[in-house]
Amino acid sequence: MAAYLIFIKDREHDAAAMADYSAKAGGSIAGHAAKPLAYYGAIETLEGAEAQGAVVIEFPTMDEARAWYRSDAYQAARARRFAGADYRVILTQGL
Question: Staple partner for 3: which of 15, 17, 31, 65, CB 3.0–4.6 Å?
């Protein structure tokens, strides 16, 4: 069953770190069954705290999403994300 990783950017505080994160995160997907569905397009927060951006990535299963998220390549990118912005990351199973 499909699974979705949703990245919600709450606040950016270091643009250079985020540029580095973006380059590393994009490369970390190689070899994983991942399909980006949304990538920092126009955003409108309808409820809750204002979001600055969002990314949605589809995976075939929750296990495959976790495998990418926990991979050494993504963990290296993740460290740059922590330096550059505050995020919420949600993994949810599709229908």
Answer: 65
* Structural domain that includes position 46: 3-93
- Closest Cα to residue 25, out of 50, 85, 49? 85
Q: How many domains does the chain have?
A: 1
Please enumerate in sequence order all residues whose Cβ is within 8 A of that of 7, keeping only pairs 6 or more positions apart, or say none: 54, 55, 56, 57, 87, 88, 89
Rounded distance, CA 2 to CA 90, Å? Answer: 14
Q: What is the CATH number of the domain that holds 38?
A: 3.30.70.100
DSSP string, 10-61: EEE--HHHHHHHHHHHHHHTTTS--EEEEES------SSS--SEEEEEEESS
pLDDT, tens only, 21-66: 999 999 999 999 999 999 999 999 999 999 999 999 999 999 999 9
Helix (H/G/I), strand (E/B), else coil: 67: helix
pTM here is 0.92
